[in-house]
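Hi C.,

You asked whether I'd gotten around to modeling the 258-residue construct. I have! Everything is below, sequence then structure, no commentary in between.
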Amino acid sequence: MNPVTASLLAALAGLLGGAMNALAGGGTFATMPTLVALGLPAPVANATSNVALQPGAIASAWSYRTGLEPIGGLSVRALGMVTFAGGLIGSLLLVATPTRVFDLLIPWLLLIATLALLFGRRASAALHARLTIGPRTLVVAQALLGTYGGYFGGGVGLMMTATWGLLAGVMPHRLMAARTLMLAIANAAATLIFVFAGIVSWGLCVPMLIGATAGGYGGAALGKRLAPALIRGWTIVVTCVTTAIFFLRAYFPNIALF
């Protein structure tokens, strides 16, 4: 493919991914498939996507900064430290994962993210009505979420919203600011490892990064105006289609997808 065309596609995917992360999470569903379709091995595509989405995550977090507040008795700083440590561990695990193994894992990771989107809030509400869980459990859960965010990250924002709703009893609309900040922190930890390990494709990362930054800031502004049902419906369509494509790609390689 022509390098100019590839760069343009990467930038457009970044714009969409940054906006999705700001609106409901799941930006990886837009960026990673594009990079794989452009010819990158899956682990490199994942690392490149992560780095490209980082400025957009920071832009979104800055836009939402006035809404930050403690969650479940834990300060934002404490949550951030736990998330950063988990992000480092998860990104180190990705670097150590062979490409073929990651190819087989991706569909299942995407499926987890999709299920979190479809049923996370409903399951969270049902469990919260029956359980009361303290800050220590929240720390453990956040460490696991940070690790997942560093390793793959697809849907981790949705998972955070569902988990915090269960463990801290906070309504989703009050979690948007903290969620975007924790996404930025997990991405920052992973970025350090991926850049140091040399598994980032900078030729595609830079245009995607520019698009994601614009999408992240614009998406945060748009999220204050759009109906939640519209945002959720669009995200569900993207996640379900992407998950199905990656299952076909991993387990039915004779079907030409990308």
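If it helps when you're writing up: The mean pLDDT is 82.

Thanks,
B.
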